[in-house]
C-alpha cells in the first residue's frame, strides 16, 4: 500500500505540478522571439539557432519590416548560417538606429519606413547593403565568403 495522502502532501504535489507546467510553458514560449529595444524606437529580435528557434523566428518575420539572414559560403549547395556578427543600421541621414551583435543567423528589425544602410561585420569581412523599408516586409540575405572552418 502507498503512503497516506495528507492535505500538505496534496498541496506540495499540486505546487510541484504547477511549477512543472510553468517551466514547460516558458520553454514553449522560447519559440517566440522576445524583441529588444534600440535607439529611435527600433525593436529587434535575434536568434534562429536550432530548428525550433529558426522556425519561430521565420514565423515572426512577417511582423517585422526587415529580416536579415546571415550566412557564409560553404562551397556546396547550401550556405552555412553564422552568428556573432556585428550589425549597424543607419537611416537616410546617416544616423545609427541599431547597433547589435547577432545571437544567431536571423535578425528581425522593426524600422520606420524609408531608406536604410545595413553594415554587417563578421570574421574580419564587411558587407554593406541598402534597403528600402515600406509596407511589405523585406528579406535580406547577407552572405560572406569562405566557410566557418576558416575562422
For the structure shown, list the relevant keywords:
6-stranded mixed β-sheet; Immunoglobulin-like; globular; 2 helices; alpha+beta; single chain; 10 strands; 151 residues; 4-stranded antiparallel β-sheet
Describe this protein's structure.
- Helix content is 22%, strand content 38%.
- The relative contact order is 0.19.
- The chain has two helices and ten strands, in the order H-E-E-H-E-E-E-E-E-E-E-E.
- The chain has helices at 7-29, 51-60; strands at residues 36-37, 43-47, 66-72, 80-81, 86-90, 96-101, 106-110, 114-122, 125-133, 138-144.
- The chain has one domain: Immunoglobulins (Immunoglobulin-like), CATH 2.60.40.10.
- With 151 residues, it is of the alpha+beta class.
- The termini are far apart.
- The strands form two sheets. Strands 1, 2, 3, 4, 7 and 10 form a six-stranded mixed β-sheet that branches. It has a four-stranded antiparallel β-sheet with strand order 6-5-8-9, with no helix packed on it.
- A hairpin with a 5-residue loop joins strand 1 and strand 2.
